[in-house]
Design a protein that fits this description.
Blueprint (H helix, E strand, L loop, with lengths): L20 H15 L1 H7 L6 H10 L12 E3 L5 H7 L13 E6 L4 E6 L20
Length: 135
């Protein structure tokens, strides 16, 4: 015996007013896009292996495909005493590929590599007090 799916879809109705089919079509298209109908259709068009799904998710940001907001400051914007206290050893400066930069993550209180190429949307900039970086 098959188990019925627990998700139910609501009926969608689009009314054509004043014989304006173009407007009704645009409304239908907008509703289908908001619902994610076309994305589901594209995703289910061909079979994807487990590896393809994993690679696609990792390209989108995190391993599970979700987005994350990162609050950081650039190393050049940090007080020099603070940076000197956090860096151990006298090794050579690390070179990073194009689009990648070493930053200080304000939430994790640690260094991280930020990839500008995978940044989604607008990167906001705001001023913070130097008192946060006590040595």
């Amino acid at each position: 015996m098959r188990k019925q799916s627990e998700t139910t879809t609501e009926n969608m109705r689009i009314y054509v007013r004043n014989n304006d089919i173009g407007k009704a079509y645009r409304i239908l298209n907008k509703k289908l896009h908001e619902e994610g109908f076309f994305k589901k259709l594209r995703d289910n068009q061909f079979h994807k292996t487990k590896g393809e799904k994993r690679r696609e998710a990792s390209r989108a940001g995190r391993a599970d495909g979700s987005e994350r907001t990162m609050v950081f400051t650039r190393i050049d914007d940090l007080p020099s005493k603070f940076v000197a206290s956090k860096i151990a050893g006298a090794g050579n400066e690390q070179k990073y590929p194009d689009g990648m930069e070493l930053v200080w993550d304000l939430e994790a209180d640690n260094f991280r590599i930020f990839n500008w190429k995978t940044s989604i949307g607008i990167t906001d900039k705001f001023d913070i007090e130097e008192d946060l970086f006590s040595v």
